[in-house]
Amino acid sequence: MLGVAAFAWLYFAGGSGEPSTELTTPPLAAATTTAPTSAFGGQAFVIDPAQSVASFEIDEILRDSPNRVVGITSELAGQIQVDTADLISAQFSQIIINARTFETDSDRRDRAIRSPVILNSGSDEFELITFDVTSVDGLSGEVVMGDTIEFTVTGNLSIKGTTSSVTFQVAGTFFDESTIEGSAEATVLREDFGIGIPSVPGVADVSEEVLIRLEFVATSV
Fold first, then answer.
1. Is the dihedral of CA 40, 46, 52, 58 positive or negative?
2. Please, what sign has the CA dihedral across residues 154, 23, 45, 214?
3. Sorting pLDDT into bands at 50, 70 and 90, what band is 55?
4. Is the domain defined by 2-14+26-214 classed in CATH 2.40.128.110?
5. Range of lowest pLDDT (75-89, 148-162, 201-215)
6. DSSP per residue over 27-79, as a string?
7. Distance (Å, rounded) from C-alpha 144 to C-alpha 141?
8. pTM, entire model
9. Which H/E stretch holds residue 188?
10. Is the pLDDT of residue 2 over 50?
11. Which is nearest to 153 in space by CA: 23, 29, 39?
12. Residue extents of the structural domains in the chain
């Protein structure tokens, strides 16, 4: 009975998965590279949510069998300004993900994820996950169209009202002068962000590690 009551509370506490506001592209942040201010310039590329997704992956034991939970959303926003002749001068905006809109293979799980125990994204206060870039490493030289560029981006990741420094491994490809396609991923610990796991029937041994991944297409503006 207690398990059923707990699950019912999680279900209703999660509320609707509808976003409260429409995301807009955030402005470029202050310089995050070692290039002099006078070097900044180039073309702005904005993440296209119609062609991009943010996701998380976490392992659990579900009904005595290993299971990987994957949640995805296309509700994300951000931009980068790039001079293709001098990548070290790149600038990044804040990256925003609407955590309320994550969808897995189960509506009941989605509601539980939005509850206060896990992401609390059903609350307007914690609806958004944000990432503010503080440093970039390995980004230099000029762009060669079609080549993949690999680098790291470190910044402050904020989830559920808690902020922690996280480094993403990034790979991006300029297919032409107007399109960048790429991915970024990092592994974080649930405890670093106060993300709990409720006690519900059938679920056990949930991993402490969570993989966060962005697969993006950014187009010039």
1. positive
2. positive
3. very high
4. yes
5. 201-215
6. PB-S--SSS-GGG--SEEEEE-GGG-EEEEEEEEEETTEEEEEEEEE--EE-E
7. 9
8. 0.88
9. strand 179-189
10. no
11. 29
12. 2-14+26-214
